[in-house]
Structure formats: structure tokens, C-alpha cells
Specification:
Blueprint (H helix, E strand, L loop, with lengths): L4 E5 L29 E3 L1 E6 L16 H5 L4 E3 L5 E3 L2 E5 L5 E6 L13 H14 L1 H8 L2 E6 L4 E6 L6 H6 L10 H6 L17 E7 L3 E6 L23 E6 L3 H10 L4 E2 L4 H7 L5 E7 L3 E6 L9 H10 L2 H9 L5 E2 L23 H11 L5 E7 L2 H16 L3 E7 L1 H7 L8 E6 L22 H11 L4 H18 L2 E3 L2 E9 L2 E2 L14 E2 L2
Parallel strand pairs: 3-12, 3-13, 17-18, 17-19
Antiparallel strand pairs: 1-2, 4-5, 6-7, 7-9, 8-9, 10-11, 11-12, 13-21, 14-21, 15-19, 15-20, 16-21, 22-23
Helix pairs in contact: 2-3, 8-10, 9-11, 13-14
Amino acid sequence: MKKKITSLIALFMVMVMALTGCGSSGSSSDSSADAGEPKYGGQLDITTGTVSSLDPMFESVDEPMSRHIFETVLALDETGTPQTGLCSYKYSDDQLTLTLTLRDGIKFHNGDTVNAEDVVASIKRWAENISFGKSYVGKYMDSISAADDKTTVIKFKSIASAAIYALAYEYQGAYVMPKEVCEEFPASAVTDNSKIIGTGPYKLVEWKSDAYVMTERYTDYKATGNACGGPAGNKYAYCDKICFWFASDSDAKMNGLVSGQYDLYRLADYSAYASLKDDPNFKVEMISDGTKPALVFNKSQGVCSNKLVRQAILAALDMDQVMLGAFNTKELYDLTGSWTPIGSAYYCDNSKYNQKDLSKAKELLAQSGYNGETVTYITDTTGYYYETAMIVTNAMRSIGMNVDLQTMDQATLYTVRKDPSKYDIFAVGFTAKADCSMMAFLGDTWPGEWVSEKKTDIINKMNATTDAQTRIGLWKEMTDLIYDEVPVITFGERKNCTIVAKNIMNATYSGSEPYYWNVWINE
């Protein structure tokens, strides 16, 4: 699809990543070295999945359109560190009061100035309805109020160390909308498209539910001014419009890309990658988004409740073999044992990752007393869940284990894994969270049921402080514990393969959630 480009040259800030933590890592940056100077103009056409709502608090499908329309209270930078978003923040000395101060001059898409009453109403709606908001802010919150037009004050009953991470997280996050919209839809998604009113760099033009979401540049948008990358960085709406086109499957997405109907195809599969990677009309962007293909052990009963069995399976695995089998090319993954994403301030690898030591594995299995019992491994039938499960099953069999690999659809898998009598291992993929303490498998009652006094002690210590360096040190302790007790195994980190037309520039992003406000189109 041809684009008409207006040649307005804009100042572009190259975001530089600052990495801290207990290991080094690499990550995609927010800029393309060969992209040239940014240009305003044109329409960016993106193929994506469907959504049931444009209310970002209630939409559970991970598609990016509403994140261009709305913004969160705080925002994460490229290392996952909370920064100023719509508001800056400050804790009291006792860490029981969090003060949020709106930046100057922020307006909603309807022209109204954002004030603290809007922030209060939005946080309350989120903390009362969304499980994420309830868990990390709502249950700790004693009160929330507007001290003046710009200042929101949250008082906590006890220290809520992850609150600022939760207020900055994008997936079903604390997005700010007008107070009157919050009051009209206090406990359900906004269903009136005229009320889809945010502060982001793009505003809603039209949502045709079976076809597309059309957005256009919001000319009164006010950037954060932060000298960082990621969602907390400055957002430049280079494209006049961004249209998100719904496509039902990967073939439809690739065919639309090839025909010129679409400019960008995110999460392209190996078939699309292999077909287009050498095509001069397209570029391939490999983006680390923090997704961890993994398995989870049943720790409450059965064969894998024995720690030595779990350690034996970990020792047996050649992670490169597992990931290559799942993704077909090394360009689509990184080998890392960190449970936090590449680029995270909490990034932490471990020497027990990728041991590929069959002799050690057999010794550990013998010490466990394993006597040929059947190990039930459940997975769905598609994608990396199935591929990794097959390869791990073969590795387990190579050290003398009897494995029953059972396949089912994903909905059934999610149901069966809640019943510990039905499995010993299940396939899974973990996505990046706002804070490492929010990882699902750390919960005592989450499927697999990892109950550990040491784990609970580390979590309690993390929850008792907001000091970043102290929490990073505690997360290293947690990583060491995970590799000792082996409640779960990560095989590595998937890369998001995004295929774009050759004239689309800067189509990369930092973090787990995609965004396209800094993309521009060359003639």
C-alpha cells in the first residue's frame, strides 16, 4: 500500500540502555542504526489479532492498539525500572505513603485537562477490579485521595514494595481515563467507543469490530521528557495514522504483508520468517520480549515431588537442542537461564542452566530412588509448548525415565493443570512481569504448588523494601533457590520475530508489550 509522506524532519533521541543486575545481557534498542532521520506522515498498517474491548484495563488479549490511546500512571523504562509516566512518584520515609504528581499540561483526547481526580478514579477502578491491581496495590491500600489538582496520595496499611511496578505495568495496567468514564463503567469494560478517551500519542478514529481499529496522531500529546527507552521514553507520533487490521491466521497475515496490504507482521512464525528473511522488500526485526518457554513440575504429589528427580531432568537437558527444535533457527531465541528478561535490571543467569550432563542426570535419578514409575507430561498440540515437550520427553527417556506425553487443546491444558492428580509436568510459557516477585509460579497455590519456606522468606524480604539494589540481591538468592529446588525449568528466551516492509523504520521496542509510536515511514 502506497504511503504519501510529509517530509517534516524531527529531532530523534537515541535511547541508550543502562543495564544493572547480577549478570550481563544484550537487548534490542529503540532505534535502527540505518533508519536515517525520522519523518512525519503516512499511514502504518499493522496486522494483528482481534480484540473484544479497547478498554486496556479489561482487555485480556495481548494486542497493542489500546496502549497507543491510553497511558499508565507510571511507566517502565527499557530495563523494567519504574519512571515518570503521567505522574512522577515519591515515597515517604516509612514507605507507607506514595505521592503521585501529574506532569504539567497533560490533556485527554477530548481536550479536557487531566487532574488528580481522574488519577484517583482510574487507580480505584483498576485496584478494585483487576486481579493484578488488587494483588499489588488494592490489598495494601488504606486510602487514596486527591490532595490538589495535580497530587494524588496513596496511604498503605503495610509496605507495598511492588506498587510502583504495578502502576507502571502495561498489560491490564493502571491506565488513566476521565473520572466520569470510570464512574459510568465502574466494574466493566467501556463499551461506548465515544468514551475511549485517553492521553496517548494516538486517538481512536474508528473501531470496526470485525475488521480494524483506526487511530490518528493526537496533536496535543505531551511527551514525558524522560532520557530513557521503553514505554517511559518520549513518544513521537511520526505516522499520521496507525491502522490495526484483524487477520485470522498466520497465512492471512503473511499474504497481506506480501501483497502490500500490511506493513508489519508481529510474532511471525518460522514459515513466514523462512519465506521472507532474504526478500529485499522486507526486513526482519528480532525483539527480545521476555517470553520464557518452560515446564512446571507437580511438587505436591507424584514422581516429580522428589527434588532429586527434578534436578536429574534439569541436568539432562541440552537447552540449545530444546530451543532449536522448537523454533527451527537460532535467530529466534536466546540461551539464557535468567527468569527475568534480557535487559532487565534483575537479569540473573545461573551456572546450573544448560548442564547437558547425562551422567550426572543418571546419578541424581539413581539417588532419588526412581523405579520406572510413569511420568505424565501434559501439553497442548501447537507451537513451542508441544515442540519443547517432545524434546524434553526424549531427554528424560534417555536417562531411563518412563514418560507418558499427553496432548490436548490449550483450554483443556489450563483446566487439567489445576488438578495435581492428573499430571507430573506441564508445558507453559512465562511472559515478563512488571516485577520479578509477580511471577505466577512463585505463588504457593498456582498450578504445580511450589511451597518452600526459603522462597517465602525471600518474597517477604522483597516485599518489605523498595530499595532497588536490595531487591536485586534478593532476586539473585531467589534464582539460586529456583535452580536448587527446581520447581520449574526455563529453556531460554524466545525472540519476537517482526517482519516489516523495507520502508518502515524503527519497528522495534523494549519490554514485553509492543508499541509503534516511534515508527516512521520512508519514501
